[in-house]
Design brief:
The protein is mainly alpha-helical. The chain is built from eight helices and two strands. It has a single domain, classed as dinb family like domain (Four Helix Bundle (Hemerythrin (Met), subunit A), Up-down Bundle), CATH 1.20.120.450.
């Protein structure tokens, strides 16, 4: 990854809060709490998870990689911790929190003034072992896109229950009961 690649990654990370806001603002409460079945998340939980990741995952791991290398593993990330922290928060407040935390993360990333040579530095993941800073940063943006896709998929499948014969044109709906 080059400086251009870092700039592209940063731009994509900066866009995520606005994309999430656009997808969810104005939806009725039932669409914010619909999920894909037992053990799956609803859109509000996805936003809570994204906000929690800004507090407890991405920048702390970037810093630990730069400061400790592989000598000290990353703190394990509790994927569900944001659910309790943000329980009961209305959507607008949660979206504002995610946007605020993401902006702070990007400011912290900018302050590190990463160079392409930094991307090969290694940290230690508690499960995977040594990982590079480049892999961590690529995972951050991939994580965003995966959750944007998840939100869109939840909403598409919810509305897809009513598409009738058009179902055959949507691969996303084929594995769902009618």
């Amino acid at each position: 990854m080059t400086n251009t690649g870092l700039a592209d990654l940063r731009r994509q990370l900066a866009n995520t809060p606005a994309v999430v806001r656009t997808l969810l603002t104005g939806l009725p409460a039932d669409l914010l709490t619909v999920n894909e079945g037992d053990g799956t998340w609803n859109p509000l939980q996805v936003v809570a998870h994204l906000a929690w990741g800004e507090r407890d995952d991405w920048i702390p791991r970037v810093r630990k990689t730069l400061e400790k290398g592989v000598a000290e593993p990353f703190t394990p990330f509790d994927r569900d911790a944001g659910f309790a922290l943000y329980a009961g928060w209305p959507l607008d407040r949660l979206l504002d929190e995610f946007a605020r935390l993401r902006a702070a993360s990007l400011d912290a990333l900018d302050a590190l003034a990463l160079e392409p040579s930094d991307l090969s530095k290694q940290g230690r993941h508690p499960e995977f072992g040594p990982v590079t800073l480049e892999q961590l940063l690529a995972t951050w943006v991939t994580h965003d896109f995966a959750h944007l896709t998840q939100i869109a998929r939840i909403l598409a499948r919810h509305h897809g229950k009513s598409v009738g014969p058009w179902r055959k044109y949507f691969s996303l709906l084929r594995d769902q009961p009618s």
